[in-house]
Amino acid sequence: MKKFLIVLLCLGLVGCATTYHKQTWTGGYTDMRIQNDVFKVEFAGNAYCRKSRVENFALLRCAEVTLNNGYKYFVIIEGGSDVQTSSYTTP
Fold first, then answer.
1. 69 or 17: whose pLDDT is higher?
2. Which residue in 5, 23, 25, 72 has its CB near the most CB atoms, within 10 A?
3. How far apart are CA 16 and CA 49, in angstroms?
4. Helix (H) or strand (E) holding 42
5. pTM
6. Which residues, at least 6 apart from 16, have a Cβ–Cβ distance to it below 8 Å?
7. Could you give the CA distance from residue 43 to residue 26 in angstroms, rounded to a whole number?
């Protein structure tokens, strides 16, 4: 019974982790064209997603945007990571 509860807990935590998808309330990517060959790409994670995973997802989205627009490579003009922490208490 203990093993079952541990597996169930682990699956629950994995289910809350940010996955690679368009921006929703659980995180995800956004991108927009700024100039003809310049795009802004962002990826937001949630509390269950490591910073390195968010950065890797942002790079993945950069690569997809590059290929989808007919380019062979991309250059990061300005990059950075921002971590924000907040809490919410339910009554």
1. 69
2. 23
3. 9
4. strand 38-44
5. 0.71
6. 26, 46, 47, 48
7. 11
C-alpha 15: how far from chain center: 15
Q: Which residue in the block uniquely carries the two structure tokens 């956004």?
A: 30
End-to-end CA distance of the chain: 32
Residues 6+ apart with CB under 8 A from 6: none
3-class SS of residue 66: helix
Those residues with Cβ within 8 angstroms of residue 28's Cβ, 6 or more apart along the chain or in another chain: 18, 19, 20, 21, 22, 43, 44
Q: Which residue has the tokens 């659980």?
A: 26
Q: What is the pLDDT at residue 30?
A: 94
Name residue, tokens 């795009």: 39
Say how many C-beta atoms besides its own lie within 10 A of residue 27's C-beta: 20
